Amino acid sequence: MEFKINFIAIGVAVIANFVLGYLWYTPLFGKVWGKEMGYDPNMKPSQKEFVKGIFYMLLGNFLCAWVLAHNITAWQFVPDVKEMGKISNAMSSAIFTWLGFYFPVHLGSTVWEQKSWKLVGINAGYHLASLLLLSFIITFCN
To answer: Residue 80, exposed/middle/buried by CB under 10 A (0-12, 13-18, 19+)?
Structure first.
């Protein structure tokens, strides 16, 4: 079998994930998230900080989508995995990645960083939604 990564799907996933992050942390949960983080609601980042933040967010989105695409593609070598269907494969890759790599970090932040469960819920929820979005785009574009 040939190991193919669809970079157009990764590009679409990066942009879609960026939009999801904007929606999640601005109109949906922005005020609550900012309060839980202890941010002053009147504080605005400088233009330099804003551009730097967008750059790093896009870079992080790319790395996440690229690694997840490799993960999804690697699992296609497992016998009978294709019989599960694309929806099941996308859900499994997102949920198991979140459960094994993201959620434990969020759990630790409640104790070691003294973050509230509300903040953990917002951040962990975003990461699950993000992985689901990325997984569906990558899976259905292959």
So the answer is: exposed
Q: Find where tokens 């994930």 sit.
A: 17
- The set of residues, in sequence order, having a beta carbon less than 8 Å from that of 63 and lying 6+ positions away, is none
Q: What is the 3-state secondary structure (H, E, C) of the chain?
A: CCCCCCHHHHHHHHHHHHHHHHHHHHHHCHHHHHHHHCCCCCCCCCHHHHHHHHHHHHHHHHHHHHHHHHHHHHHCCCCCHHHHCHHHHHHHHHHHHHHHHHHHHHHHHHHHCCCCHHHHHHHHHHHHHHHHHHHHHHHHCC
Give the residues of the chain that fall short of pLDDT 70: 1
Compute and round to an integer the Cα radius of gyration of the chain.
17
Name the pTM for this structure: 0.92
